[in-house]
Amino acid sequence: MLAGAIGFSPSALAQNNVTAVWTRADALKIQLNSTNTAPRISPDFPIMTEEVWIWDTWPLVNLEGRTLSVKGWRVIFSLVAPRNIPFGDRHWVARIGFFYSRDGRSWVYGGHLFPDGESFGSREWAGSTLLVGNTVYAYYTASGHDGGGVDPTDALQRIAMATGSIIADNTGVRFTGFTNHRIILEPDGQFYQTLEQSMGGPIIYAFRDPFVFRDPADGKNYMLFEGNTGGVSGSVTCGPREIGDVPPGHVVPPEANLYTGNIGLAAGGNGLENWELLPPILSANCVNQQTERPHLVIRGNRYYLFTISHMFTFAPGLTGPDGLYGFVGPALRSDYQPLNGSALVIGNPADAPLQAYSWYAMPNGFVESFIDTVSTEGGVVFGGTLAPTLHVALSGDRTNIVSELKYGFIP
Ligand code: FRU
C-alpha cells in the first residue's frame, strides 16, 4: 500500500525509517482453521537425547539463510539444559548446544557450542549461527548479568557474538574457538526499551534473539532481533495507527499500552562484526508484548517476515494461539502486511494449546519447532525435543500448512 501510495521503489523505501505495524484490527482477524492449525502431536513422540531438554533451534546457515552441509553433515543449534532439572527451570541455565546429522533427520548431540565460562550473561538465549568462508559467526542473547548465577528475576538482555571454526570429519562435527565474545548491541532507550524502562510492565521486556542475514537488494548484512518500543512502560499511546480499522464497538483497554513488542533491525554493513541500531521494522504496540525470534525468508522481491508469539502475550482485548505469525512486504524495510489478513501462519490446536513452540521457517518452506507440553489422559508430558517439521506453502500474502514431515527433519 504505502510503497505504491508514495511512489517509492523498494530500495528507496529501505533507506527511510518506516516502521510497519501489526494493528489490533489485524489481530482481531486471528482464527484457527484448516490452513493454519498444526496437527496434534502424539504423546509417544521420540526424544532426540536423554541428556538435555531442547527448545529454540536454528540451523547452520549461510548469509542467504540456506542450511549448509559441511563434509556431508547438517548442523543445528538448540538451547539446551540438563534433562534432570524441571522443564520450566530450563531458561535460567540455558546454553547453546549443537547436533549433527547425515540425513537431516537423526541427530547426534555434540555438547555445548561455547567453552564453559566464555559467554556473556549468566545464560545463553536464542541466536543464529552462520558459516561465512571458514569462520563460524555465532550471535546470541547474553541473558542475565555476567556472573549472575541462576536467577529468574534477572531480566537483563544484551546481544553478543563470538567466532570459531567447525571441524567435520568421518566421525562427526566439533567446534573450536569461541573465546572472543563481545557484547555488540544494547538497547538505546529510544527505539528499544532498556531493562530500567521496562520495570512495571506485566511481562518481561525483550532485547534478544538475533537473526543475521544479507539483504540481496543492497548486498549488506543486517540483524533482526526482538525488542520493545523505547520509553518507560505505559508511555505508548494506542492511537489510530496502532488500532487500525476495527469493527464498531471495539474497546481498547487502557493497559493495552503496556504491550509493545517490536522487530528490531541493526546494520552490519559489509561486515559481520560491528553493528549499528536502526529503527524497528515492525511494531506490535498495543497488540502484543513479544515478537520473538524474528526471521526472514526472501523469495524474489517478497520479504516474508516471521515471528513467534504466545497467547498470554497478546494485549488485553485480543487473543491468538501460541504460534508462528508472519508478514510480507516488497523490501526489508517496507509496509509489511500481515499474512492471511491476521498474521497467523501456524497455531497450536485449540485442544493442545501448548503442544509446540518456537517455529522457525526456512527458505524451502519447511518449519521446525520444539515439543513443549502435550496433554494426555494421565496428565501432561514435557517435550524438550524437536516436533514434526511442517511444510508451509507461501503464495503471495497467503499461507497453507500442506504436510507434516518427520520429527526434527531439517534437510
Ligand atoms: C522463545 C524464547 C526466546 C528466548 C528463549 C529463552 O522460546 O523465549 O525468545 O531466547 O526462549 O529460553
Provide the β-strand percentage band: 35-45%
Question: Please, what is the average pLDDT?
Answer: 95
Extract low-pLDDT stretches. Answer: 1-14
Whole-Å distance between the termini?
36 Å
The percent of residues in helical segments reads under 10%
What is the helix tally?
5
Present as ligands are: beta-D-fructofuranose
Structural class: mainly beta
Radius of gyration: 20 Å
Q: Major sheet, described briefly?
A: 10 strands, mixed
Q: What is the global morphology?
A: globular
Order of helices and strands: HHEHEEEEEEEEEEHEEHEEEEEEEEEEEE
Tally of DSSP β-strands: 25
Structural overview:
The protein is mainly beta. It has 5 helices and 25 strands. Strands 2, 3, 4, 5, 6, 7, 8, 9, 10 and 11 form a 10-stranded mixed sheet that branches. Strands 1-15-14-13-12 form a 5-stranded mixed sheet, with no helix packed on it. Strand 22 (366-376) and strand 23 form a beta hairpin. The longest helix is centred in the first third of the chain and has 6 residues, at 10-15. The two termini are 36 Å apart. Mean pLDDT is 95; it is low at 1-14. The site of beta-D-fructofuranose has 14 residues, from strand 2, strand 7, strand 12, strand 16 and strand 21. Beta-D-fructofuranose (FRU) binds at residues 55-56, 79, 91, 94, 125-126, 141, 208-209, 292-293, 357-358.
